[in-house]
Specification:
The protein contains 7 helices and 14 strands. By secondary structure, the protein is of the alpha+beta class.
Length: 266
């Protein structure tokens, strides 16, 4: 715990429990390539540019934050959103948040391996050192916003115990999208059970674009560009057809070989 004399500097501590229907993700993060889809260390930058949308993601020696690291951001966003819904007249949360790691594990249904607490700090390091530059929600044309996912963090754990505690300072871009602008979409708790990075990413895309539509389609090449995948287009297409075809939680994924499109049915 960090001890400070000024109570206005104390971190926000959530009192709400997250139910299966309470998880939220930021819609912009479900559309563009902000995270590595591989668990391996990725140092190659991610760059996406089309029309007026620009996204550039670079990492440090720890690599670019992964889509599994982003599970933690989803949980944070969901936790803050739930607190606002439960206590709209009380003190609004700020970007400085205190929590117990056990709550994150319990809410998302994650299991603890022998090195989990040390590995979680690896996720914090990547979120803290990954640099993002984007035109999305920049205030004027030809402008970019630059930030890291976490401005700062404090983490303390005793291996094998449930006393791991952390404090994080969430970046303003994410905070504003989730709390001020309410640019969030509901996702199911089962999302956290998806194994591959490609599955997790494509589910987000489906959730973002399908909406209330029963069917939606997109060219594989377009998905490839938006994914930020480090694979070649040929290998990406192969993985889509071998890893993704069939049920993807509440969506069914099929392919049209004539048009080279992914077809999604909800």
């Amino acid at each position: 715990m960090l001890f400070v004399e000024d109570k206005s500097l104390l971190p926000f501590e959530s009192a709400s429990e997250i139910d299966a229907c309470d998880f939220r993700d930021i819609s912009d993060l479900m559309t563009y390539p902000f995270f590595s889809l591989s668990k391996g260390i990725r140092r190659e930058p991610i760059v996406y540019e089309k029309d007026d949308i620009y996204v550039s993601v670079t990492g440090s020696k720890y690599g670019i934050a992964t889509i599994w690291d982003a599970d933690f951001l989803i949980w944070l966003i969901s936790k803050i959103n739930k607190d606002i819904e439960d206590s709209p007249s009380d003190r609004l949360p700020d970007r400085h948040i205190s929590f117990k790691l056990f709550d994150y594990l319990s809410d998302t249904g994650k299991t603890v391996s022998g090195n989990f607490y040390r590995e979680f700090e690896g996720a914090l390091k990547r979120l803290n050192t990954t640099n993002v530059r984007t035109s999305i929600r920049a205030l004027t044309g030809n402008a970019v916003m630059a930030f890291n996912w976490l401005d700062n963090y404090y983490y303390k754990y005793n291996n094998g115990e449930n006393s791991a505690h952390a404090e994080i300072w969430l970046n303003q871009w994410v905070f504003d999208a989730a709390i001020r602008h309410k640019m969030v979409l509901q996702i199911p708790r089962e999302y956290f059970t998806l194994k591959s990075g490609l599955q997790k990413w494509l589910y987000k895309v489906c959730r973002r674009h399908c909406g209330k539509q029963k069917r939606w389609g997109c060219y594989i090449k377009t998905l490839y560009q938006k994914s930020g995948s480090a694979d070649s287009l040929k290998h990406f297409r192969y993985k889509m057809k071998t890893e993704i075809a069939g049920d993807l939680l509440n969506y069914y994924i099929s392919f049209d070989s004539k048009t080279d499109k992914v077809l999604v049915t909800s």
